[in-house]
Structures are given as structure tokens and as C-alpha cells.
Amino acid sequence: MGVLAGREWPRPAGGDDRGRVVTCDLAFDVQEPADIAVQIAPAERGGRMHAERLELAIDGAPLAPPVELAAPHGGRIHLLRVPRGLFAASYRADLDSPRPRPGPHPTGVAGDEPLDLQRLTYLRPSRYCPSDHVVGLAVAEFGALPQGRPRVDAVVDWIHHRIGYVAGASTVHDTAEDTLLTGQGVCRDFAHLGVTLCRALGIPARFTAVYAPGLTPMDFHAVFEAWTDGAWHVHDPTRRVPRDGLVRIATGRDAADTAFAAVLGGIATLRSVEVTATVTGLLPADDHRAEAVLA
């Protein structure tokens, strides 16, 4: 699934018609030549790819294709070297449904790090998820519940009912502690808080950036996954979209690992970002207490 100006794969006969189309358009004002890393392509496990196109331009002139790096859990990072000017990146992918499914998730998938190392990594505090600071709260609120899935379900319910979804209520510097103090945030804050409380309870949890058909207004979306009953189950405390339509982009400890764009060197300012995610047919209603595993 390499990166190219344009590439297509034939659809298999009799395949799943419940496809997904995702797009992202970015624009940067580049004041000094910059190195930019973007994570906007679906993860390798995000569904069978039928076509993808990545077009890069500076002041309207085409740029050479970027370098693609493999990130954890099938993620794809594209490294761009951009000269001064107005930089534009336009991405589109057409893929089959990467539908979450109930039941155990396969372990030992080729290319994954060992699961015991995953669990260790996602138990530790991280930049936006200072789980060691909220152990007292987590134990007081959820410690009386049976371990594992009952605690995760209670965490998701607690966040959904206690935290208000308010557009623009937080900044890129806010951690889960800020969300607890203000009682409001957006999807990344809800996901960070879910990760933080789960880790404080001894449950491995990780942050996942996704495309989300059905989201209004349309944007990138964030959910979290918790390790229970031998699987990474996906949870969305915002309950704003059906998990059935989610397309994995990037997975990590928190938003620092999954940012859609990061300026690594030089000077560049994000001017605009537009995201779309559509699905063929109707998205079903989601019972958010049901088990689901994201592809």
C-alpha cells in the first residue's frame, strides 16, 4: 500500500459493498523550509484498500512523493520536506469496511510488538494521560467494581455523563487532569480521560485516531481501546458516532503519538484542514455497551 500520486486496486467480485471513502485536505503557510510528518492515511489494518491518492503541491507546483514509515499497529507516517510557500496536501482513500467485531482479537499478528510489551507500554503514564496522578479518584469511583470490563464500562459511562462535549473548550496543551478540572472537552479529551482512568485502575489502554463516518461536524475523531478479556476493545465516551464505521488511522499512548500533522523542523503554520468520511448505505445504531474490536 505505498504512497503515490495515484494508485488503484481492483475490487474483488462479490466483495463487501459497505465501503468507506475518506479524504483529508491540509494547507500550511511555510515561512522557512520545513520537515512535516503527517498521519492521515488509514492504517494497514484499517480495511482492504481499493484506491488511494496523495497529491502534494507548493504554490500550485507538484512536489515529489514523501517517504512512508511504518508506525505501530499498522499506522503510516508520511515525511515531507517542504520549501517556502503555500503547501497543500490532498489525500483520498477508497476502502472496504473495517468493521469492529465482537469476540477475541487475534494475537501475535505479524508486525505487532509482543502483547506483553504492549500491555506494559499502555499501563504507563504519558504526556496527556498522567494516570499516576488520579489513582485515588479512580479507585474511589470504580475500585469496588469487578476487575476488567465492568470497570471500563463504568469509566465510559462516567465520562459520558460527567464531562460536557464543548467545541473549542480545550487546547492542544490540555491533559486529562485539565478535563477533570473543567468538566468539559472534545473527543481527544474524552479519550485521554478514558485512557487515564483505565491505566490508573491497572487496565492497559491506548489512544486511537480515526476517521468517523456520521460525525457532525466532520473532523478527525478520537476514541480509546482498553485491554480486557484478551482483546483490545474500542470505546467512545462521546457516543457521537457508531463504532461500526470507524477507520483506524494511528494508535499510541496519547495524542502526541497520533497527531495528524507535526512540524519537525523549520517554520510552518497550519492554515486549514478539511476532513470527510462517508460510508455506502446506512450506519446502524450503536449499543455502546456492546463489545467491539477495531480492525
From TrEMBL:
Q: Which Gene3D superfamilies does the protein's record reference?
A: 2.60.40.2250, 3.10.620.30
Q: Which InterPro entries match?
A: Papain-like_cys_pep_sf (IPR038765), Transglutaminase-like (IPR002931)
One Pfam family this chain carries?
Transglut_core
* Superkingdom classification of source: Bacteria
Give residue ranges for domain Transglutaminase-like.
Answer: 179-239
Query: Membrane-spanning regions, if any?
Result: none
Give the matching SUPFAM superfamilies.
Cysteine proteinases (SSF54001)
Query: Which PANTHER family does the UniProt record give?
Result: BLL5557 PROTEIN, BLR5614 PROTEIN-RELATED
UniProt protein name: Transglutaminase-like superfamily protein
Taxonomic path = Bacteria, Bacillati, Actinomycetota, Actinomycetes, Frankiales
